[in-house]
Amino acid sequence: MASVEVVILKNKRMKLARVERDYSQEGLAEAVGVTRQTIGMIEAGSYNPSLNLCVAICKALGKTLNDLFWEEAQL
Description:
Elements: H1 3-20, H2 25-32, H3 36-44, H4 51-61, H5 65-68
């Protein structure tokens, strides 16, 4: 899988988890202590969050790092 495809899949997983939890970008941003723009940039693939931010997002969304951010192994 190309690296661009991996980024898109990760971002879609995060957005899907956010929507499933009924969070707006603003609501998730408030929950993890960043701006709405930061959440939007992560979902757009134009911002690479720190590990601490990834963990905070996972906690807020009830997901693991593997669920949202881990790259799938290539076969």
